[in-house]
Amino acid sequence: MNAPLPDVPEVRVVGLPQLTTGFDLVERLDLAMHLKVHGPLEPMTGERLAELAEAISLRGRGGAGFPFGKKMRAVAKASIRRGVRPVVVINGSEGEPACRKDTVLLNRAPHLILDGALLAAEALGARTLVVAVTRNSTEVSVRAALAERGLSDRRGQQLRARVVRTPERMVSGEASSVIRAANGGPALPPGRRERAAETGVGGSPTLLSNAETYAQLAVAARIGPRRYGHTGLPNEPGTVLLTVSGAVARPMVIEVPTGVPLRYILQLAGAPPLPQGVLTGGYHGNWIDAVASHNAVISRESLATVGGALGAGAILPIGPETCPLGESLRIANWLAAETAGQCGPCKLGLPAAAGGLSDVLNGGGPAALEALREVTQAVKGRGACKHPDGSARFLMSTLSAFTDDLAAHVLDGGCGRETLGVLPLPASGYQDLEESIPSGEKLAVDWTLCQGHGLCADIVPELIRLGPDGYPAVADASVPMHLRGRAQRAVRRCPALALRIEQPAAEQRPALPAVNRRALGSGRD
């Protein structure tokens, strides 16, 4: 059974590296090493930068694939029309369990990402930079990189830069969730559709894109569109970062030129020679069968042609020994639990769809299959964010890709295989407690008082999620030091007084790290 992926898995490269240049020299490129490896970067005007993005066909690498040049022009136009300075946001909120490519870049090459974001900020005249991250290791790396450049959130600076920590949840990486978190709210979709280019952080026009996109922009700005276009396909030039996991011998993040056969990537990671299926694009992506995975190459167009998706760059094969519907049910249950709880299609529809798939697997027959198709179809296009659509796409793809197994479960009572759990899911709670300093305190729910108001999940979603019934899914959660303030606020805000913080016994209280007195002194020997 797959364990959760580490923050920084093994990194490989096919061909010449661009984003991962220098990874063979050091574990992390600090500013000095970054400049030695990549060289200096000259500023560009907004028009030249937009033309560069268009010349290399740069699209967002977070899943949506929106053209970066078009997004940048929209932000510039809105900023000029309104007479306000825009904001630039790096979305490093990688809450999907199958994705680690942005985390790898932020941990090992943070200055390449900052290069692209600062290039865009100067071109647009922005005076605010926000970096959203989900993990402790990533936050430490980004804060160190900002300090190396002398960037902070202090008043009086030409550019103010700050880090926003978001919970490791599927919905937290959506653009509207990141903007809401940057504005001081919970990292959840606001429940209404808004264009960041018009109204984003602080109500200002906001250029928001994911970490890899800015890194690609920085590479192209250094080498120019002609040289950039020498790598990869003519219509999708350059390289892409992929996270390969699932039924593989070596989970990895790999940089690969577009146009490389998918089968070669699977072979490199140690996937089965004939995978039963390959999930492309992550848990909001599509399944493809063994024949399609043999014929496809790494590109948006090629994967779409065979029914797949590049999406967030996650590739997950499964072998013939596991039940593909059982594997998909594990993911469907997780996707249902990831609901923001703000609209019916997400809060009610996704748990119902997951339950429908469970009924199919447990002998519900044709009636259960028809009910599953109906509820999944009803979810599409009706959510307040993209999570219901992505989850419905995953479920419909499951039904289309594994027709033989579906028939075996519907007509014959099962396929005879166990579910091995090869698709990675986060550990229980998934809030990086192993890397945080524990307080020893626990957040607990008194079930005799709880009325399911859900305020606690809004205030501290890292510790509490709402279950399908609308009640907290976590009744006993350890509280790390960095979340104590919000946990206490959740306790105070509970209308039913059902939430409490339990103090540890004296002998169980964690010891604080020893104080480095020299570091607190004058600095003299």
TrEMBL record:
Pfam families the UniProt entry points to: Complex1_51K, Fer4_15, NADH_4Fe-4S, SLBB
InterPro entries documented for this protein: ComplexI_51kDa_subunit, Nuo51_FMN-bd, Nuo51_FMN-bd_sf, Nuop51_4Fe4S-bd, Nuop51_4Fe4S-bd_sf, Soluble_ligand-bd
Residue intervals of the NADH-ubiquinone oxidoreductase 51kDa subunit iron-sulphur binding domain: 330-409
Soluble ligand binding domain segment(s): 243-274
Ranges for region Disordered: 181-204
Keyword set includes 4Fe-4S: yes
Cofactor(s) demanded: [4Fe-4S] cluster; FMN
Domain NADH-ubiquinone oxidoreductase 51kDa subunit FMN-binding: 56-217
UniProt similarity note: Belongs to the complex I 51 kDa subunit family.
Protein name: Oxidoreductase
Organism: Streptomyces arboris
